Prior knowledge:
Blueprint: H1 5-30, H2 35-70, H3 74-103
The chain binds copper (II) ion.
The site of copper (II) ion (CU) has 3 residues, from helix 2.
Amino acid sequence: xxxxxxxxxxxxxxxxxxxxxxxxxxxxxxxxxxxxxxxxxxxxxxxxxxxxxxxxxxxxxxxxxxxxxxxxxxxxxxxxxxxxxxxxxxxxxxxxxxxxxxxxxx
Length: 106
Ligand SMILES: [Cu+2]
């Protein structure tokens, strides 16, 4: 099973918000706005993307995972989730390192 119609609409709304915030960031960078204002706008992008992922994950748990458990295929979906969560923490630690490098130019 893939994404449900209800989640598709919610996701599209969240992604539209993220795109709107990202376009604003792009414009602010182009116009060389104040760093903190750009960073606040970037947080809004990240928040909209996090919410999108949350909706997607909840939908996946309610559909694909339930279906897999009913079909005795739970090991596969659990491994997929494990890999997803492991990869998420790697991305977070990379972002933290690069942010420190970008911020402290001294
Ligand atoms: Cu799914």
